[in-house]
Structure prediction request, 70 residues.
Amino acid sequence: AWMARDPITLFQGWLLADGGCTQDDLDAVAATVEKRLDDGIEWAKEQRSPTPDEALEHVYVDSIGGKALL
Prediction:
């Protein structure tokens, strides 16, 4: 049910129907995205794990009364 409403799938269908691109164009974009994701995952795996002190850096911000102290 969701795939019938998936905005990416709908946009791809519109591009194909409108002649905005070919299936080969869409396949090339998908391959590029897949490669970038795979490269990012490999990069992340190669990084050292953070120390306990570093693990929460930039996750929370100190605030007073709901206003961030930056």
In short: The longest strand covers residues 63-64. The first helix runs from residue 2 to 5. Residues 36 and 42 are 10 Å apart (CA to CA). The chain has a mean pLDDT of 91.
